[in-house]
Design a protein that fits this description.
InterPro entries: TPR_TRAPPC9_Trs120, Trs120_TRAPPC9, Trs120_TRAPPC9_N. By secondary structure, the protein is α/β, with parallel strands linked by helices. Helix content is about 55%, strand content about 5%. The chain folds into 2 domains: about 180 residues, Rossmann fold, CATH 3.40.50; about 210 residues, Tetratricopeptide repeat domain (Serine Threonine Protein Phosphatase 5, Tetratricopeptide repeat), CATH 1.25.40.
Length: about 525
Amino acid sequence: MEPDVSIETSSMIRVTVLPIGHVPPVLLRDYHSMLLRHQTIPLSAISSFYTEHQKSPFAHQPWDSGNLRFKFVLGGAPPSPWEDFQSNRKTLAVIGICHCPSSPDLDSVIDQFDSARRAYSSALVDRCFAFCPGDSQLEDGSKKGGNLMLFPPADRATLEFHLQTMMQDIAASLLMEFEKWVLKAEPAGTIVKTPLDSQATLNSEEVIKAKKRRLGRAQKTMGDYCLLAGSPVDANAHYSTALELARLTGDFFWYAGALEGSVCALLIDRMGERDSGVDDEVRYRYSSVILHYRKSFIQENAQRVSPLTFELEATLKLARFLCRRELAKEVVELLTSAADGAKSLIDASDRLVLYVEIARLYGTLGYQRKAAFFSRQVAQLYLQQDNRLAAISAMQVLAMTTRAYRVQSRASISEDLLPKKEIGSNLAEGGKMLHQSVVSLFESQWSTLQMVVLREILLSAVRAGDPLAAWGAAARLLRSYYPLITPAGQNGLASALSNSADRLPSGTRCADPALPFIRFSRVPKHFSC
């Protein structure tokens, strides 16, 4: 599964962004942020870079209103086995980022970039952007030509304009490559298959069926490239043909894929014209998408490869499309269905992505407790990995749940955000309560859940090697929940506090005091004569 998917994802061109040579992290983030400003490039802006070598297969290209959409992936990702099924999963362009002062040898930079781009065989366009070259590098680089693009030192506005020009050139180059691909594929069709096909044992009848399916799959793939080229009307024409051919051959998986593409084409074509009619159409088609992904499940392949991830992604896409408060009930039903499907996922990383997306969507709805629950599921998956980086990730995720569970650090509680009564009842401020009322709260399931959350934070902080976070979690447990903690448990927390204190610099202060709150009462003295 992929994170942050939406219905419009099918129209996004994946671009891998790679650091070449040594690039200081701060500068790499800065250059990447500059690229992110060009996630959408109007077709009208690339006409000066575009050359029509032969009649374009995109007969209804909206040059005045259309766009090319980009998804920049910093650091890249391994090739997906499902690239033939959904063309937007392919890395279609590679951009290298080089910081010339840190990499003075441009020949070495070119060699490194050539080596790095070979890992992305599906890339149709590649460029290496070299920033801040010196005078000698400018002279040397101008002789090399090729895909090395030098960005001379300049003010920010000039640099961004230069980058915009380069991205428009890349967009035009990709559009021309898409045209070539569709023209090449159209006469004879193209061989496309998925891991579902490679797992199946084909008899003679199935071989004949597979040949018949080839044309439908080729039409679906051409529709994908039309979408990537920013031509939804052409895409829809190919998808309509693909749907009919897939229906005739019982190719349920590709039928679902073509139907997904047609929904994306619908939304791109009606960009900015969303109404209840569009919502109903999307809802109707995506219900069919989910159903056909479910139909394509093959029992004998269940332990090796399954279309379940596509069914769940489609469910998340529909939930994200409908995600607003007035449709909360419908969205919750979709998210509940997706969460149930997590039990059948083979890959733990798929479960992690699924839980992250469910948590984000619940958060968008304003259902903070549900978002916190699924965030804890994410943290638990991280904690199953026995390494420090995973523990840091778990700790960061759990930190986002503390407000929902009312176990946040005292330093993070803002009186402006919480009503006075709520502050007084917050267990993090448990010291302000009478001992009897604290004990009664401890006996509730809510208090038990709060203790579990704090224990998870403590465990992740210890594994992550963060003594201050470990101290804070142990202190909150010991201070607010000591009546429910056994003597052995209290000793364990005391040890955690001691170990954290030993690792903290002298004089470090934590917002969470460790000792339980004790209320002192002034008793008047009575003197007898």
